[in-house]
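Letters spell out the chain; backbone shape is given numerically. Both lines appear below:
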Amino acid sequence: MQTVTLSLFRFDRILARLWVLGQMGAARLSLPHVPGLGFWKLCGSGTGEGFTPRPNWGTWAILGVWSNAKAARDGLAQAPFTRWRNRADESVTLYLEPFSVRGHWSGARPFRPEGAADGPVAAMTRATVKPMRAFRFWGRVPDISARVGADPNVIFKIGIGEVPLLHQVTFSIWPDTASMAAFARTGPHADAIRAVREEGWFNEELYARFRISATQGTWQGRDPLFRNQTQEAA
């Protein structure tokens, strides 16, 4: 079964942040040669709840799509993943299995859905924002971010992206598909979805849902699947 990994890395020190900026270029040279890695993206992140256009220079991500779980484990045990983990002050990897996918990413269909939801689910939305619509899009984001952060059902959330302002990825974990769907159908999020359809904000969209098969590491001192701890993911 196809395995998708989302690896998050936090760099607190100035020198480490400068190092990872350079690695955004170097990793592009090494990732194509990692066995079993068919699709990958290097991403920065936003500040606050994460769903903002203001960059967070301390948090970076690598998304990987692997032929199977063994390929993912073996690939994550080599560079550039090991280099990033060794330099990071904290890191976590989520192992995901897609069960529902719609749309494209960079013209490709990277995720191959199989099976159905089981237990906690992760939602990933990726879009390329039309430059002429970027101002209106980011005007909606604070309301959605506040709702995501305040929703008691959200276990984990983060906003990442390949290109500031124009490429955005939202990633969140929910206890089940029902709570995830309830959030999507109401409030600012539902209003934004209607505006997307009516005004054509995006050049490209992808909506994916995943089972979570495993986690490795911590984020802000906890496993992202355990929301009963007091710290919030950022």
